[in-house]
Predict the 3D structure of the following.
Amino acid sequence: MEEVISDEPSNLPKLLKDEDLRQECKDLMSTLPMEPTYKLYQYQGFWYGSWALQGILSCQKHFEANDKDIILVTTPKSGTTWIKALTFALLNRNKHPHTQKNHPLLVTNPHILVPFLESLFYDEKYIVSNLSQFPSPRLLSIHAPYVSLPKSAKESNCKIVYLCRDPKDISVSMWKFMETLMPEIRGSNLFDEFFELFCRGVNLYGPFWEHVLEYWKESLKRPEKIMFLRYEQMKLHPTLVLKKLAEFLGCPFSKQELDNGMLDDILKLCSFDNLRNLEANKKGTISMFGFDIENKSFFRRGEIGDGKNFLTMEMVEKINTITQKKFSQYGLNFENFTMV
Ligand code: PAP
């Protein structure tokens, strides 16, 4: 069996080379608009690195969602690691009580417990033989925009939990993450260019605003299928969000569980400070998306509003104006939302 996910240490970064791509992906890439600085390709209106593009194409071709599947969809750097941990702990709360000394989340990075479909599907050989062996309900994740989701994910009754975040914080979180993958950009003046591209929608899985709007509209049409969440909601109202998430996934907390503090225990287990300080997340790497990524790079500040510490006033104004223009008619924002 071929391993795609490993926490073995290795040299960083291991960037996938184009010659490793399948011919079908190379052929398509040669026809797509390309952004030269970060080598992103525009497919179905959204931007991908070559590795993610191959994964998405393969997912679209081979992934068969079933009604029991749970798919976590996030815009990158929206709290993916956190929602993976929370949902894993929630669904497995009987099999793995939070008191368990070797609870999987205490010894394994959440990205290994809840893999990215496009990363798994990057290697078709692995996935075709293994995905059927995942325990049911299969808990999976993907960054794909709605338009590019595999057909079965849209048409089956599988549940989708969508998570996004204030784009100011995303842009900075994404840049800081890229610095860990590409140390040569650290301290460079390339951030300004990255930010301009981000505002034009040219970033991994961007445009951010269109990504969010697609899922927002779908979640309004089919609230029983898509739960729409914001990172800010999770930070400000974690108890309420986790309760609603459990209800949405069909595994509500019982009165007894609530009385026993189960919900708070899950929140504590998955808290930023707890996860960040675990050996499993302080050390080691995960192989995905063509990179060997250090586990610790998924835990930086974990705060609302950190973007403002890094962006200039003009940048904040620019991104706020775009967000306002794109979202206001839909009543969407990241500051004054109600948690119904
Ligand atoms: P991904 O989309 O690339 O998988 P993702 O987990 O969304 O990554 O990005 C990490 C962000 O989530 C980091 O944000 P920051 O750069 O603004 O700090 C990280 O700190 C934050 N994060 C990770 N785990 C948690 C957690 N348990 N609680 C809150 N925030 C978290």
